[in-house]
Design a protein that fits this description.
Two copies of one chain form a homodimer.
Chain A (H helix, E strand, L loop, with lengths): L2 H4 L2 H9 L7 H8 L7 H13 L3 E8 L2 E8 L1 H25 L7
The structure holds a DNA duplex.
DNA sequence: TGAACATACTATACCATGCGCAGTATTGCG
DNA sequence: CGCAATACTGCGCATGGTATAGTATGTTCA
């Protein structure tokens, strides 16, 4: 996908990935891979950002001698997802303009 | 609309605005305003960018003693629009993941 | 008359974000 | 032992939307 089009979408994808259960970096990348590709250097800054924004809380769990950082979605994170879905209407408006409505139905 | 979500979309909106007839800066902003809002400081860099990319050609017309720069869509610009519509499938995939498919039909 | 506003374009600088690349450390497979 | 996978961190870059400001002309209205 074009990099620019991912802007603002990836962050919400990550939040959504945490909706059903808490998860950690590597797992999130794998879970999202069927829908959207993102690298570690993209994900980890996102995780820090949404933590700073209060959209997730973090706790560490030892796993094979290493610490795994689990992320847990907060109500603020939920609200962020809903806000995105709301904003999307405007994106669709722009998209519809670009697509044109020459053919009424597809 | 969230700034980040506009990324990559605005440029194609401008190209699309030039599809039916040549136009110039101020007019483009007015034509797009029902669909997407953009300021002059956003539009003019876009115009220079798409010109440099060969998506449009430019010619000046005198109007009330001032020069108006008209932009004309090239085949490359057309192709850019089609490329965007193609990329959009992946965006929809990410969006569908975020929206979830709890309700099968809307 | 002149202040305000619309038209029309230009230039500079800022900031957010996705990504490449590199580094650290452990487990497990061949 | 080398290499891949796991798991996380840090640096620096390019892109692109925006604020702010400046230039210049025509129209409107008090």
């Amino acid at each position: 996908m074009d990099i620019q089009l991912k802007r603002g979408i990836l962050e919400v994808c990550v939040l959504k990935a945490l909706e059903k259960q808490d998860s950690y970096g590597y797992q999130i990348i794998k879970d999202l891979s069927p829908f959207v590709l993102l690298s570690e250097s993209t994900l980890y800054p996102i995780l820090r950002r949404i933590e700073a924004a209060g959209c997730v809380t973090v706790y560490s769990v030892e796993h094979n001698g290493r610490l795994r950082k689990y992320y847990h979605l907060t109500p603020a994170g939920q609200a962020r997802i809903l806000g995105f879905l709301n904003d999307w209407n405007e994106v669709v408006k722009a998209y519809d303009f670009i697509r044109g409505n020459d053919d009424e139905k597809t």
